[in-house]
Amino acid sequence: MKKILLTAVMLPLMLAAAVAQSANSAATQAVKLDMSNAIELTILTGANPQMNFVTVNDYANGIVSAEQQLQVRSNKKFNVRVKAQASRFSFAGAGADPKMPLSVLRLKVYNNNTGGVITSGHSNFTSLSTNGKPMINNATPGGSNTFSVQYRATPGFTYPAGTYAMEIIYTATQA
Predict the structure, then answer these.
(1) Which of 1, 74, 100, 166 could form a disulfide with 39, with the two C-beta atoms 3.0–4.6 Å apart?
(2) Strands 68-74 and 39-43: what pairing?
(3) Does the structural domain 36-174 have CATH classification 1.20.1070?
(4) In the chain, where are the structural domains located?
(5) Average confidence score pLDDT of the chain
(6) What pLDDT does 18 receive?
């Protein structure tokens, strides 16, 4: 009788243990990143360079600006172009506008850390145009690609005192 009673008590316990669930469970999720092409061009230093002509030698030999550093962040290869906004400088000063031409100003790539190729003679001072010129081609993707430029202005003695201004436009496009 003891055996029957013991079996009657133990059998439900053994059956409960046999159908008990594990203490672990798992679920799966697929995470998707929907990314688009991204590019940004920023002027890091020298936002509005000013070149001051003070001595006769400045007029005779021209002046070279300080280094102007720009940065491109892109998730694809990219190219950089440069152009002038107008064919003549704007003028603020006494008298009539002397119409200083764009040819007074030249540009060169001073330092290139983009992995791209400097084009169109931009490793030396070269003329600018209003149509735009390729400056750096086939640059590598990245978050801190930088390049620097310098300007050289050689107006000579033809133009009167005053402030002459020209907007230079840099454009970075993905290749």
Answers:
(1) 74
(2) antiparallel
(3) no
(4) 36-174
(5) 90
(6) 55
